[in-house]
Amino acid sequence: MIGFDGFFIGYESDEETLNCARIAKKYGMTFQSLHAPFTKCNYMWVEDNEKGESAINELLNCVEICKKAEIPIMIVHAFIGFEEHNPTNIGIERFGCVIDAAERGGIQIAFENTEGEEYLVALMDAFKDNKYVGFCWDSGHEMCYNRSKDMLSCFGGKLIATHLNDNLGIRDYDGRITWLDDLHLLPFDGIADWKYNVDRLKKCGFDSFLTLELTRASKPGRHENDIYAKMDPIDYLTEAYKRACRIAAMF
Description:
The protein is an alpha/beta fold. The protein has one domain (6-249): TIM Barrel. The chain is 41% helix and 13% strand. It has helices spanning 14-27, 49-69, 89-104, 117-126, 139-144, 151-155, 194-204, 226-229, 233-249, and strands spanning 6-10, 30-35, 73-77, 108-112, 133-138, 159-163. Strands 1-2-3-4-5-6 form a 6-stranded parallel sheet. Helix 1 packs parallel to helix 2 (49-69) and helix 2 runs parallel beside helix 3 (89-104). The longest helix is centred in the N-terminal third of the chain and has 21 residues, at 49-69. The mean pLDDT is 97.
């Protein structure tokens, strides 16, 4: 088990999720969270009812599988894309339906900082008093999608999950952000100031799982993650565990 106490996965199918839950119980690990699909999340905000319903149903299915697999947290993106900046009331209502279902099942929804910061702000404000709504802080996203804005100062009071990873910031010299900037490097392989990050987490009083979100694959046209792809998976996971321990020791 390398040394990790738990894990999370991105949703692919009910069968895979339930199988991972069985593995977690077998080895005494915590299935910390399920990352909901996000390719349709911008549909939550549009007037098109057919698209909106398809997006809601996708998230509602994830809520149900979280209940069946006894996963306490579902990670959700508020939006996908860089061109639109207009949260709508219908979007708040649709997410409200998902949150109501999660509350009935005892599942917490953690909205993650990604592109479309206005949509995250709208949701966190609309559901600020709901104890089943929290924040998932992605340290790498903050450095590119949020232009290194201190997202923990905005939503740290609702922090219930982390996606810790490193990054190189925004590549384009003119400041144009794209999905290619989101590298998910091992901590300490990018330009993040991890003392600054830990100090902010401590200020939030965060005392739950330190969860990494990493990838061994490089983005198209980039090569920063190539070295990970060449590593044996056991060696890579061991290195990830060592980096996690370095961060934990800073607490």
